[in-house]
Amino acid sequence: MRAEQPVQQEALHRTGVLAEERCGHEPRVPGHGAFRVLITMLRGGTASRGARSAVRRALAGAGVTADEISDTEVIVAELAANSEKHSRGPYELRIHCLSGIPMWCEMVDGGHELGEIPGILARLQVDAEAGLEPFAENGRGLLLAHMLSNGRCYAYPTTMSAGGAPGKAVAFALPAAPCEGGG
């Protein structure tokens, strides 16, 4: 299930990405500066596949390069797999768009506790590898999300879109489309 919801202006601070960081794209959503969230409800057992598909569609439509789309697919697949393995549903992928440009992505699950996630992400800010092995069988999702989002990966409590139950989000900055004129 996909949905699009307008979001109040106060929500902009959560993205960690400033509009000025994106190249001068024309708005693709009606209304100057319109902030929208594309929500994809993900099914248990196929959350990784659904998350990859949703993020691929959003970024391809915004002109993001194939390599960056592939990197982003790796992030959402890892985070969705983590959600399924370590938490409970429901599962949502939220893509935050400003003026039609995807800027921020959240993998949300029905887990109430952030557990060790903020500590791991904080250690990664200080030490890019923090004792985590990128090719390990387990424990690489947060490392890959941190590395592929250039350190812009965070975890925080949130509310599920459907039903309003408490949940948690692991979120990261999305890549931008190349700037016109090489800037």
Give a quick set of tags describing it.
ATP binding; 30% helix; single chain; ATP-binding; alpha+beta; 183 residues; Heat Shock Protein 90; nucleotide-binding; six-stranded antiparallel sheet; disordered N terminus; 4 helices
What does this structure look like?
By secondary structure, the chain is of the alpha+beta class. The protein has one domain (2-10, 33-175): 2-Layer Sandwich (Heat Shock Protein 90). It has 4 helices and 6 strands; from the N terminus they run E-E-H-H-E-E-H-H-E-E. A 6-stranded antiparallel beta sheet has the order 1-2-3-4-6-5. 37% of the residues are buried.
- The level-1 CATH class: Alpha Beta
What is the CATH architecture descriptor?
Answer: 2-Layer Sandwich
Our Rg estimate from Cα atoms comes to 16 Å
Report the uncertain regions: 1-32
Number of helices: 4
Total domain units: 1
Biggest β-sheet description: 6 strands, antiparallel
State the strand order across the main sheet: 1-2-3-4-6-5
CATH topology: Heat Shock Protein 90
Helix and strand content put the structural class at alpha+beta
* Fraction of residues in β-strands: 15-25%
Please give the alpha-carbon distance between the first and last residues. 37 Å
- Estimated helix fraction: 25-40%
Q: Name the CATH superfamily assignment.
A: Histidine kinase-like ATPase, C-terminal domain
InterPro entries: HATPase_C_sf
GO molecular function: ATP binding
Protein name: ATP-binding protein
Organism: Sphaerisporangium corydalis
Quick structural gist:
By secondary structure, the protein is α+β, with helices and mostly antiparallel strands.
